[in-house]
Design a protein that fits this description.
The structure is a single chain. With about 300 residues, the chain is mostly helical. A hairpin with a 4-residue loop joins strand 3 and strand 4. The strands form three sheets. It has a three-stranded antiparallel β-sheet with strand order 3-4-5, with no helix packed on it. The chain has a two-stranded antiparallel ribbon with strand order 1-2. The longest helix is centred in the middle third of the chain and has 26 residues. It has 14 helices and seven strands.
Protein backbone atom coordinates (compact mmCIF):
# COMPACT_ATOMS: atom_id res chain seq x y z
CA UNK A 1 0.00 0.00 0.00
CA UNK A 2 1.00 3.60 -0.58
CA UNK A 3 1.17 4.40 3.15
CA UNK A 4 3.48 1.44 3.81
CA UNK A 5 5.75 2.40 0.90
CA UNK A 6 5.99 5.96 2.24
CA UNK A 7 7.17 4.91 5.71
CA UNK A 8 9.92 7.28 6.91
CA UNK A 9 9.65 9.36 3.74
CA UNK A 10 10.46 12.56 5.63
CA UNK A 11 13.52 10.98 7.27
CA UNK A 12 15.02 10.13 3.87
CA UNK A 13 14.26 13.59 2.50
CA UNK A 14 15.79 15.22 5.58
CA UNK A 15 18.98 13.19 5.26
CA UNK A 16 19.30 14.34 1.64
CA UNK A 17 18.77 17.93 2.79
CA UNK A 18 21.37 17.48 5.56
CA UNK A 19 23.92 16.21 3.03
CA UNK A 20 23.29 19.09 0.62
CA UNK A 21 23.47 21.66 3.44
CA UNK A 22 26.72 20.19 4.78
CA UNK A 23 28.38 20.20 1.35
CA UNK A 24 27.32 23.80 0.72
CA UNK A 25 28.54 25.08 4.09
CA UNK A 26 31.88 23.29 3.71
CA UNK A 27 32.57 24.35 0.12
CA UNK A 28 31.31 27.96 0.00
CA UNK A 29 34.47 29.40 1.68
CA UNK A 30 36.61 27.86 -1.09
CA UNK A 31 34.56 29.11 -4.05
CA UNK A 32 35.78 32.30 -5.70
CA UNK A 33 34.43 34.59 -8.38
CA UNK A 34 36.94 36.92 -10.03
CA UNK A 35 39.36 36.27 -7.19
CA UNK A 36 36.80 37.17 -4.48
CA UNK A 37 34.91 34.82 -2.17
CA UNK A 38 31.17 34.18 -2.40
CA UNK A 39 30.84 35.23 1.24
CA UNK A 40 33.58 36.42 3.55
CA UNK A 41 33.50 38.93 6.38
CA UNK A 42 37.22 39.50 6.90
CA UNK A 43 38.21 41.53 9.95
CA UNK A 44 41.86 41.01 9.02
CA UNK A 45 41.52 42.60 5.57
CA UNK A 46 38.56 44.79 6.62
CA UNK A 47 36.48 43.60 3.69
CA UNK A 48 33.12 42.02 2.97
CA UNK A 49 32.99 39.62 0.02
CA UNK A 50 29.49 38.97 -1.28
CA UNK A 51 28.81 36.95 -4.43
CA UNK A 52 32.27 37.71 -5.79
CA UNK A 53 32.14 41.45 -5.08
CA UNK A 54 34.52 42.94 -2.50
CA UNK A 55 33.27 45.81 -0.32
CA UNK A 56 35.75 47.87 1.68
CA UNK A 57 35.28 49.36 5.16
CA UNK A 58 33.68 52.57 3.90
CA UNK A 59 31.05 50.51 2.08
CA UNK A 60 29.97 48.42 5.07
CA UNK A 61 26.88 50.60 5.46
CA UNK A 62 25.34 47.91 3.24
CA UNK A 63 25.51 45.38 6.09
CA UNK A 64 22.41 46.64 7.96
CA UNK A 65 20.36 46.42 4.76
CA UNK A 66 21.62 42.90 4.09
CA UNK A 67 20.74 41.86 7.65
CA UNK A 68 17.26 43.39 7.34
CA UNK A 69 16.66 41.50 4.08
CA UNK A 70 17.91 38.29 5.68
CA UNK A 71 15.56 38.60 8.67
CA UNK A 72 12.63 39.50 6.43
CA UNK A 73 13.33 36.38 4.37
CA UNK A 74 13.46 34.25 7.54
CA UNK A 75 10.20 35.71 8.84
CA UNK A 76 8.52 35.21 5.47
CA UNK A 77 9.69 31.59 5.31
CA UNK A 78 8.44 30.98 8.87
CA UNK A 79 5.02 32.42 8.04
CA UNK A 80 4.71 30.00 5.11
CA UNK A 81 6.37 26.82 6.38
CA UNK A 82 6.88 27.19 10.13
CA UNK A 83 10.17 26.08 11.65
CA UNK A 84 11.24 24.22 8.53
CA UNK A 85 14.78 25.59 9.02
CA UNK A 86 15.05 24.01 12.49
CA UNK A 87 14.23 20.46 11.45
CA UNK A 88 15.73 20.44 7.97
CA UNK A 89 18.84 22.64 7.78
CA UNK A 90 19.85 23.91 11.24
CA UNK A 91 23.46 22.87 12.04
CA UNK A 92 22.49 22.06 15.63
CA UNK A 93 19.87 19.58 14.41
CA UNK A 94 22.30 18.06 11.90
CA UNK A 95 24.99 17.63 14.56
CA UNK A 96 22.50 16.04 16.96
CA UNK A 97 21.51 13.52 14.27
CA UNK A 98 25.19 12.77 13.62
CA UNK A 99 26.02 12.40 17.29
CA UNK A 100 22.88 10.76 18.71
CA UNK A 101 21.58 8.69 15.78
CA UNK A 102 24.73 7.82 13.82
CA UNK A 103 27.51 7.76 16.40
CA UNK A 104 25.75 6.76 19.63
CA UNK A 105 23.05 4.50 18.14
CA UNK A 106 24.18 3.06 14.81
CA UNK A 107 27.95 2.82 15.31
CA UNK A 108 28.54 2.39 19.06
CA UNK A 109 25.19 0.93 20.11
CA UNK A 110 25.06 3.15 23.20
CA UNK A 111 21.39 3.80 22.50
CA UNK A 112 19.45 0.67 21.68
CA UNK A 113 16.66 1.93 19.44
CA UNK A 114 16.46 5.04 17.31
CA UNK A 115 12.66 4.84 17.51
CA UNK A 116 12.72 5.73 21.22
CA UNK A 117 14.39 9.06 21.97
CA UNK A 118 12.83 9.16 25.45
CA UNK A 119 14.98 6.27 26.66
CA UNK A 120 18.40 7.45 27.80
CA UNK A 121 21.32 4.97 27.94
CA UNK A 122 22.18 3.37 31.29
CA UNK A 123 25.40 5.14 32.27
CA UNK A 124 25.95 2.94 35.32
CA UNK A 125 27.38 0.24 33.04
CA UNK A 126 31.14 0.34 32.46
CA UNK A 127 30.76 -0.55 28.77
CA UNK A 128 28.40 2.40 28.25
CA UNK A 129 30.83 4.76 29.96
CA UNK A 130 33.56 3.62 27.56
CA UNK A 131 31.25 4.08 24.56
CA UNK A 132 30.33 7.55 25.82
CA UNK A 133 34.00 8.49 26.11
CA UNK A 134 34.67 7.24 22.57
CA UNK A 135 31.71 9.19 21.23
CA UNK A 136 32.99 12.37 22.93
CA UNK A 137 36.47 11.97 21.42
CA UNK A 138 35.11 11.30 17.93
CA UNK A 139 32.68 14.19 18.08
CA UNK A 140 35.39 16.50 19.43
CA UNK A 141 37.28 15.92 16.16
CA UNK A 142 34.11 16.63 14.17
CA UNK A 143 33.54 19.80 16.23
CA UNK A 144 37.11 20.92 15.54
CA UNK A 145 36.52 20.64 11.79
CA UNK A 146 33.14 22.38 12.09
CA UNK A 147 34.70 25.22 14.10
CA UNK A 148 37.37 25.56 11.41
CA UNK A 149 34.62 25.78 8.79
CA UNK A 150 32.96 28.58 10.78
CA UNK A 151 36.26 30.45 11.01
CA UNK A 152 36.67 30.27 7.22
CA UNK A 153 33.77 32.71 6.84
CA UNK A 154 35.81 35.30 8.75
CA UNK A 155 39.36 34.22 7.94
CA UNK A 156 39.98 33.05 4.34
CA UNK A 157 40.92 29.35 4.22
CA UNK A 158 44.24 30.16 2.54
CA UNK A 159 45.11 32.50 5.43
CA UNK A 160 43.70 30.16 8.08
CA UNK A 161 45.97 27.25 7.17
CA UNK A 162 48.91 29.62 7.04
CA UNK A 163 48.14 31.16 10.43
CA UNK A 164 47.75 27.87 12.32
CA UNK A 165 51.34 26.99 11.43
CA UNK A 166 52.43 29.85 13.72
CA UNK A 167 50.17 29.59 16.78
CA UNK A 168 52.16 32.02 18.95
CA UNK A 169 51.71 34.80 16.39
CA UNK A 170 47.96 34.22 16.07
CA UNK A 171 46.76 33.60 19.61
CA UNK A 172 43.30 35.14 19.12
CA UNK A 173 42.68 32.86 16.14
CA UNK A 174 43.35 29.82 18.31
CA UNK A 175 41.24 31.20 21.18
CA UNK A 176 38.22 31.66 18.91
CA UNK A 177 38.83 28.33 17.16
CA UNK A 178 38.99 26.34 20.41
CA UNK A 179 36.17 28.43 21.90
CA UNK A 180 33.83 27.56 19.03
CA UNK A 181 34.86 23.89 19.33
CA UNK A 182 34.12 23.74 23.07
CA UNK A 183 30.82 25.58 22.62
CA UNK A 184 29.74 23.15 19.89
CA UNK A 185 30.59 20.13 22.05
CA UNK A 186 28.67 21.61 24.99
CA UNK A 187 25.58 22.40 22.89
CA UNK A 188 25.39 19.11 21.00
CA UNK A 189 26.53 16.64 23.67
CA UNK A 190 25.34 18.16 26.94
CA UNK A 191 22.68 20.83 26.29
CA UNK A 192 21.08 18.76 23.51
CA UNK A 193 17.58 19.81 22.33
CA UNK A 194 17.28 22.13 25.34
CA UNK A 195 19.16 24.60 23.14
CA UNK A 196 16.21 24.62 20.70
CA UNK A 197 13.67 24.97 23.51
CA UNK A 198 15.25 27.46 25.91
CA UNK A 199 18.19 29.18 24.21
CA UNK A 200 17.43 29.60 20.50
CA UNK A 201 15.77 32.99 19.87
CA UNK A 202 14.08 31.65 16.75
CA UNK A 203 11.83 29.39 18.84
CA UNK A 204 10.60 32.46 20.72
CA UNK A 205 9.58 34.45 17.65
CA UNK A 206 8.26 31.63 15.49
CA UNK A 207 4.95 31.28 17.34
CA UNK A 208 3.94 34.91 16.72
CA UNK A 209 4.69 34.48 13.00
CA UNK A 210 2.27 31.57 12.60
CA UNK A 211 -1.29 31.79 11.33
CA UNK A 212 -3.92 29.17 10.50
CA UNK A 213 -2.50 28.70 7.00
CA UNK A 214 1.11 28.14 8.06
CA UNK A 215 2.38 24.71 7.08
CA UNK A 216 3.54 22.81 10.15
CA UNK A 217 3.48 19.41 11.80
CA UNK A 218 -0.21 18.92 12.63
CA UNK A 219 -2.08 16.09 14.34
CA UNK A 220 -5.52 15.39 12.89
CA UNK A 221 -7.56 15.48 16.08
CA UNK A 222 -10.82 15.03 14.16
CA UNK A 223 -9.78 11.54 13.08
CA UNK A 224 -7.47 10.60 15.90
CA UNK A 225 -9.38 12.06 18.80
CA UNK A 226 -8.49 15.13 20.84
CA UNK A 227 -5.88 14.61 23.53
CA UNK A 228 -6.02 17.04 26.43
CA UNK A 229 -4.41 16.70 29.83
CA UNK A 230 -4.78 19.78 32.07
CA UNK A 231 -1.92 18.63 34.32
CA UNK A 232 0.52 18.46 31.42
CA UNK A 233 1.19 14.75 31.91
CA UNK A 234 1.58 12.54 28.84
CA UNK A 235 -1.33 10.23 28.15
CA UNK A 236 0.10 6.77 27.55
CA UNK A 237 -3.21 5.41 26.30
CA UNK A 238 -5.79 5.70 23.53
CA UNK A 239 -7.79 8.97 23.53
CA UNK A 240 -11.12 8.49 25.29
CA UNK A 241 -13.12 9.74 22.31
CA UNK A 242 -15.72 7.69 20.38
CA UNK A 243 -14.42 6.37 17.02
CA UNK A 244 -10.91 7.75 17.67
CA UNK A 245 -8.43 6.28 15.17
CA UNK A 246 -5.38 6.97 17.34
CA UNK A 247 -4.25 3.63 18.78
CA UNK A 248 -2.44 5.17 21.76
CA UNK A 249 0.80 3.44 20.75
CA UNK A 250 2.74 6.64 21.59
CA UNK A 251 5.17 6.00 18.71
CA UNK A 252 4.99 9.72 17.89
CA UNK A 253 5.90 10.63 21.48
CA UNK A 254 8.75 8.14 21.85
CA UNK A 255 10.56 9.22 18.68
CA UNK A 256 10.26 12.98 19.24
CA UNK A 257 13.74 14.52 19.77
CA UNK A 258 12.32 17.41 21.81
CA UNK A 259 10.16 15.07 23.95
CA UNK A 260 6.70 16.49 23.22
CA UNK A 261 3.30 14.98 22.48
CA UNK A 262 2.33 16.39 19.08
CA UNK A 263 -1.28 15.31 19.68
CA UNK A 264 -1.69 18.22 22.09
CA UNK A 265 -1.42 20.77 19.29
CA UNK A 266 1.20 23.34 18.30
CA UNK A 267 3.98 23.64 20.86
CA UNK A 268 7.03 25.84 21.16
CA UNK A 269 9.36 22.83 21.22
CA UNK A 270 8.27 21.38 17.85
CA UNK A 271 11.04 21.79 15.25
CA UNK A 272 9.05 20.40 12.28
CA UNK A 273 11.36 17.42 11.85
CA UNK A 274 8.30 15.21 11.10
CA UNK A 275 9.79 12.19 12.87
CA UNK A 276 6.37 11.74 14.49
CA UNK A 277 4.69 11.68 11.07
CA UNK A 278 6.95 8.88 9.87
CA UNK A 279 6.29 6.92 13.07
CA UNK A 280 2.52 7.36 12.74
CA UNK A 281 2.65 6.47 9.03
CA UNK A 282 4.24 3.13 9.91
CA UNK A 283 1.58 2.29 12.51
CA UNK A 284 -1.47 3.53 10.61
CA UNK A 285 -0.19 2.00 7.35
CA UNK A 286 -0.47 -1.46 8.92
CA UNK A 287 -4.13 -0.67 9.62
CA UNK A 288 -4.70 0.47 6.05
CA UNK A 289 -5.25 4.08 7.08
CA UNK A 290 -3.55 7.39 6.37
CA UNK A 291 -1.23 8.90 8.94
CA UNK A 292 -2.79 11.08 11.64
CA UNK A 293 0.21 13.44 11.63
CA UNK A 294 1.17 15.32 8.50
CA UNK A 295 2.83 18.47 7.18
CA UNK A 296 -0.20 20.65 6.61
CA UNK A 297 -1.96 23.65 8.15
CA UNK A 298 -4.49 23.89 10.99
CA UNK A 299 -6.99 25.42 8.56
CA UNK A 300 -6.76 22.43 6.22
CA UNK A 301 -7.58 20.13 9.16
CA UNK A 302 -10.70 22.14 9.86
CA UNK A 303 -12.09 22.54 6.33
CA UNK A 304 -10.43 19.49 4.69
CA UNK A 305 -9.13 21.66 1.86
CA UNK A 306 -5.63 21.73 0.40
CA UNK A 307 -3.18 24.21 1.89
Amino acid sequence: MEQVRNVRQYLKKRYVMYFITTILILTIPFIRINGNHIFLLSFDHKQLHLLGVAFDMQELYLMPFLLILMFLAIFFMTTLAGRVWCGWACPQTIFRVLYRDLLETKILGLRKRMENRQLEPDMSLGSNKLKKAISLVVFALVALVAASNLMWYFVPPEDFFKYIQNPLEHKFLFIFWLGFTIALIAIVVFIKENFCIYMCPYSRVQSVLYDNDTIMTVYDYKRGGAVFDPKGIKLWKKPEVPNAECTGCEACVKICPTHIDIRKGMQLECINCLECSDACTKVMGKLGKETLISWTSPQSIEDRQKV
